[in-house]
Structure formats: C-alpha cells, structure tokens
Amino acid sequence: MFAEPTNHPGRVTVVAPDGTETIKSVDVLPDWMKFARGRDGLTVPVVLIAQVRSGAGFTFHSYGSDGRLVAVTASLGNSPVAPPDRVSGWF
Question: Which of 20, 21, 31, 53 is the most buried (most CB within 10 A)?
C-alpha cells in the first residue's frame, strides 16, 4: 500500500470512545491502520488511534509519533475497523 520503506515502533495505542486504552502489536493491524501519509507526502507510522463516536459509527483519528493528526478514517455501523475504501483522506 505504501511505496516507501518505513520502520514502525511496533505498537499502536488505541483509545476507545469510553477512554479505555489498548496497546496493539502492528503484527495484527492492516497497513492502512499502521501507516499514513504525512504533510510532506512521506509515509509516517501511526502510534495512536482515537476511536471517536459519530452518528454513523466511528471515526478513527490517527496520530504520528510527533503528535500530529495524520489521518481520519470513517467506520460505518458497529464495525470497529473500516475498510480501506472508507479512508477520508491523508493530511
């Protein structure tokens, strides 16, 4: 999915809508949840995903290691994981 080789720290912290934090190994996450495009167009590892309730399900706010928001992804219904075609854009 991403052309540039990028090293990932190995873990992503996922914050549920109720504030519960879970540490996920990148081995169990798809690439579109582990990496995003930074403002410069280069691939950056995602280290924090905040699941935010929305009227249609959830949105995922993905942050890089520098704390910047790098992607917002929509998930419809009760599904905790959105399919890649639901990605709203890269920042």
Answer: 31
